[in-house]
Write a structure and sequence with these properties.
The chain has helices at residues 2-40, 50-65, 68-74, 76-83, 89-113, 117-125, 130-166, 172-181, 186-218. The chain is mainly α and 219 residues long. It has a single domain (2-218), classed as MetI-like fold. One of its GO terms (cellular component) is plasma membrane. Residues 13-207 form the ABC transmembrane type-1 domain. This is Methionine ABC transporter permease MetI. Pfam families: BPD_transp_1.
């Protein structure tokens, strides 16, 4: 019995890590360009475009305002189209990614906004192209902030993954509900909870450590 529970715990833990890792990478590679777009099309910036900025901002705002559980149900047809199913690990990654993209984009946009505008003006005065300003000023200056944003992203995804497990996904959330709560097995539910907390702590401590290292290196 103990060996079976341990096997289930390990399987659920790896499923959670896999969901969070893939969803986080998708959110990073799609959310970062959106954050850049929001920044450079804002009023007073070198690619100022109010229409594009409002479209991107509306997408991010709407995406962030929909509760995750409702989002999971609302995009079931899309999830089935992408992965061929609405349950399981792969299916959970679709709503996790969709929810994480606007979340990450908005956080990173805030990090870009905190960059000293004088640096951008100096780069423009030196004749740098918009492309050069993005890759030689905006991104390098925001690296510590982006690292911190990634930490927040992965912590939030770990929490969301538990909700995904409760409504058809896999991972520790599914283990806690299916094998713990529904079967009145409190120890199993507590084990899943403890591992979830440990995962969050590991992500937080690792992210904070990387952010500090990058910040010191930048200085």
């Amino acid at each position: 019995m103990f060996q079976e529970t341990l096997s289930q715990l390990l399987e659920s833990t790896f499923a959670t890590i896999y969901m969070v890792a893939v969803s986080g990478l998708v959110a990073f590679f799609i959310g970062l360009p959106i954050a850049i777009g929001l920044t450079v099309t804002a009023k007073g910036m070198f690619y100022e475009n109010i229409v594009v900025h409002k479209i991107l901002s509306s997408f991010v705002t709407i995406g962030r305002s929909v509760p995750f559980v409702i989002l999971m149900v609302a995009i079931i047809p899309f999830t089935r189209f992408v992965v061929g199913s609405s349950i399981g690990t792969a299916a959970a990654m679709v709503p996790l990614s969709v929810a994480a993209i606007p979340f990450f984009a908005r956080i990173v946009e805030g990090k870009f906004a905190s960059i000293n505008s004088g640096l951008i003006e100096a780069a423009q005065a030196m004749g740098c192209s918009p492309f050069q300003i993005i890759y030689k000023v905006l991104l390098p200056e925001a690296v510590p902030g982006i690292a911190n944003s990634c930490t927040i992203l992965f912590v939030s995804l770990t929490e969301y993954s538990a909700m995904a497990g409760a409504v058809g996904g896999s991972g520790l959330g599914n283990m806690a509900i299916q094998y713990g709560y529904y079967q009145f097995n409190t120890p199993v539910m507590l084990q899943a909870l403890v591992v979830l907390v440990l995962l969050v702590l590991i992500i937080q401590f690792t992210g904070d450590y990387i952010t500090r290292k990058i910040s010191h290196h930048s200085i």
